[in-house]
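PT: before anyone asks, these are the final sequences, not the draft ones from last week. 678 residues across everything. Please model them as a single complex and drop the result in this thread when it's through.
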Amino acid sequence: MDLLEYQGKQLFARHGIPVPPGQVATSVDEAFAAGEEIGYPCVVKAQVHVGGRGKAGGIKVAQDSEEVCEHAQAILGMDIHGLRVDEVWIEKASDIAAEYYASIVFDRSARAPLLLLSTKGGMDIEEVAEEDPEAIARLHVDPLIGFQAFHGRRLAFEAGVDADVVKPIAAFLGELYAAFVAEEAMLVEVNPLIVTEDREVTALDAKVTLDGNALFRHTDNAGLRKSSDEDPQERMARERGLTYVKLDGNVGILGNGAGLVMSTLDVVAQAGGAPANFLDAGGGSSSEVIVESVEVILSDEKVRAVLFNIFGGITRCDEVARGLIEAFDQVDVKVPFVVRLDGTNDEEGRRLLAEADLPQVHVEKTMLGAAARVVELAGEDASE
Amino acid sequence: MSILLDSDTKLVVSGLTGREGKFHALNNQRYGTDLVAGVTPTKGGQEVEGVPVFNTFRDAVAQTGANTAMIFVPAPFAADSVLEAADAGIGLVVCITEGVPAHDMLRVYTHLRRGGATRLIGPNCPGVLSPGKANVGIIPADFFSEGNVGVVSRSGTLTYQIGNELAQSGFGNSTIVGIGGDPIVGSSFMDILALFEEDDQTELIVMCGEIGGDEEERTADFIAENVTKPVVGYIAGFTAPPGKTMGHAGAIVSGSQGTAAAKAEALEAKGARVGRTPTEVAEIAVDILGGGSG
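LR: through. Structure below.
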């Protein structure tokens, strides 16, 4: 789960990581009050889950209360790469003497947290990595021993930070690591990590990704999800406990098991179609889950045909068939369905479907046959 | 001979007294797996369909000689249960539980590797099946028969799909191993390929990968250097957009990293053949082995 900048900074502050003082505002009035409290100059920053905010005009410096209101007025409601800005973060402007980069990533291939530090902050780190890999100091931390003071010193010396801030930068990395572990983050990134004119080390930005599987231990963090950024179908699916990802095409997809669903998307694409979604109904899906899934898939108006690809293991094909029959009873279905059932109770499932004789439901024997059929049906319907 | 499981497997199940754990453990028992014990703290002394339940793994191992554990407890308790099984000296732990926090797995993985005495499969995996010998997990065993194809996969149902295609082409399996779809799992493709390489029964290995991470790429190098048996690959997720997790916590394309195309190319560059569809995987297997040999 990705946090907004201000949520990341508030999380940092809880762990003693220095961040500029600031306040969140959702209206011009709140922005005015925040500016008055923080003092000028201050920075008005759009809070959205997307990069390139500055270039899009979502970050502006205000010299006085009039400018705070002006910028908040312009930025609130602004569209940045398809996302509406609902909140701005207003923080005290900093005097920047140096811009560094620091991050901790969950390195799955090394099975250890990886710390990165560079004096080339304030720019795209992937570009730095490509053009000047030597400019990034790297170090893996043994997860059973954790961060040691020498880790911080080694990184600071190797990255070549200004001599007078080696100690504070090393300490900053230690605090960042403590937050990474305590909050069970998959990523914490500070770009830029600044040294002010007064030689204070401060996190001027915060990018934090938390492990969604660990939120049960961090109930405060669980509330930080910004649901207005979610696609309506994705929100609907999440509220129903379904694993759904919205895609761009017109072929709705339901399968059981993440790997099989991904494979289904691939064979539909190979057959010349464009999947509208990823939907994993999961193991042991009951008929209620199927009904809810159908509702989510069909709430996407682009969908012209739907493919059910089920390989029953824990999931019973007869239960899936019952769910589909119920869905046709409860939902106004206007598009054709192609259903492929294999595995546990597949014959019973197909018998139920044949008996129900649902309009526009086509049963196919194989996964490839089903993919070809659904692509054909989606195309036909779209051309009408 | 199969890998990981055989007729000497003695299974203890953590979560045997839960609904799901009981259902699948008894399924495994019906298949012929020697289910010797369950572990549920505070329920020691009870029985589940005649199988004794113990408070701790230590008791279960001491009383029954269990050598394989299946973990079926909810995610918040899974890491603890895996570590307890390892502490009791169990050599193979299969963790079915999904949703285990990544930081938990970081510690568990590092600890187990350092000890070197316990092999972990999973978490978030369908388990292990050696057809005709033993089944530990949730793989529907009826679809598979004994044979010469080893299968290792990150995904459950995709494995059944590919196993079914292989069965229709006349192939059976030595062992099917679901290694799990999380960012950190106990055993990698490389770990399992090394076991298949040493296994007499296995003549061909099918490896089902998916988007995310770089393990398939690293496995390609490993195959070139260490595996003499033919490997047929399949990668799911060609159509997955960057930045979206496709169901499995580990299945995510970040930037240019972890794409299906890169993985398929890496495998092919090292001499493994890659099927574009599950059906094509079976066709390649037929081509290599010259028809099903059971």
